[in-house]
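> @MW can you paste both from yesterday?
MW: sure, first one:
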Amino acid sequence: MQLYLPIAEVSINLFLLLGLGGLVGVLSGMFGVGGGFLLTPLLIFIGIPPAVAVATQAPQITGLSLSGALAHLRRRTVDVRMGCVLLAGGIVGSAIGVDIFRRLSEIGQIELMVTLSYVIFLGIIGSLMFVESLQALRRTQRNQPVRRRKRHGWVHGLPLKMRFRTSNLYISAIPPFGVGLFVGILAAIMGVGGGFIMVPAMIYLLGMPTAVVIGTSLFQIMFVTAFTTVMHATQNYTVDTLLALILLLGGVVGAQIGAQIAVKLRAEQVRILLAGLVLVVCLKLAYDLVVMPADLYTITSA
């Protein structure tokens, strides 16, 4: 069944879009990521203009993050206080990112910027996560004692300390705010919830337990992407409502399934699966940057 999307100005198969939304929903529930790092490239691959793909991700990620966050709230695996600090930084970062997005769109460089950002960040984060998770998994299989991450580092020496009881942490609010700020910028420019950056940062930088990280990440992503949706819709006019609703329908169902799967996996397995997925998407985008396109020139209307 073909469906015409007015803002994107393309015709796309309805069941394909539902399937993509469902796949990303499962990833959201499993890994605590919004799923935009995967869905945005996939939408570009099937013909959605990059500017529309990025902006339309925000409302879809909002909905499936809400679905996943509710599932984790019922299990009490969400640190609400930590989520609020991350959210404060995320709102500021999102406003900055939308302005950068608008300026890049005006000079015609948004597609290159989006793709390069994905390749760089996915490559770095995916590689670091894969190596660390593989080492942890091997130690577990050999019954070797797992080396605990340092609970006290430079983060604990900063001012403005807060107690996060759910995460069993007493650290400065500055690093969580900074992480949220950075992720907010990425959410606006790259069309992602930022979970692929936030989840590793919460585990390795802030020292949060993996069981709490996933739900807290979804809690923060939910609000940041909602704000990003409003900003893109009112400033850039690139949100395709029909496309977002279709993706959201599949995503909400998938998020519940993913949350159930996550409970049955060990922390090391969750991290290594996420790292592998991140690297696959990174390699595909990098390949598309260097391969010669079928059409070297495209004529567009002014």
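MW: second:
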Amino acid sequence: MRAATPHHELPDWLIPVREALDTITGHDLTRFLPPPDADPRRSAVLMLFGECDSGPDLLLTERAHHMRSHPGQVSFPGGAMDPTDLDLLHTALREAEEEVGVDPAGVEVVGLLPELWIPPSNHAVTPVIGWWREECPVAVVDPDEVHAVLRVPVAELLDPAHRIRVRHPSGWLGPGFLIGDDKDLILWGFTAGLIARLFDYVGMTRPWEDSAAVHDLPPHMLAVPEGAAERIRRAEALLREERP
């Protein structure tokens, strides 16, 4: 059981997410789980739900465009576990505070999702679900890591008009969302997949066309870390071996 015991009552719309933590598996969220010989770097992200004027929302960041790994991607606050971190929950809260100024005291931890794997960077990531019980101002704290801070309404993520498919130059196609004030920022990759599949699992997703528009990634998002191609090939080989 991965759900935490809340000290304060959660909003009704977040209850299905809390209940899902008892049954959801890594395979419900991604095709990629850490293989035994991967020796990944353990990391955590904070999937922080709050409420804005338009209703429930999610806190996201746009990574700095000059980073060597996943530049310009929209992601949850988070990062690699430090030796001084007590656990991965501590990692997620610490990173959110360091990156955008989230006060950990105002976050109600709902629970942890299963550990997932990002082959290109070889990170084993544990998503921490949080409820922003006592909100605080947030902004870019470290411009070397974060380009912008976003609070994206859940209703916009569920709106079929904002659902897209994203195409990588390798030929990979995956789920995506158009976000931002002008809906010109692409949310894709690990974060988009996690959001889409979690919403699918709890029954929040609204029907959308599989033939949704395909968007190519902008050049600044295409940098990959050293060794990424080989890890992706190994991950795809493992998936083929698992198929009957």
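> thanks! The chain has one domain: 12-222.
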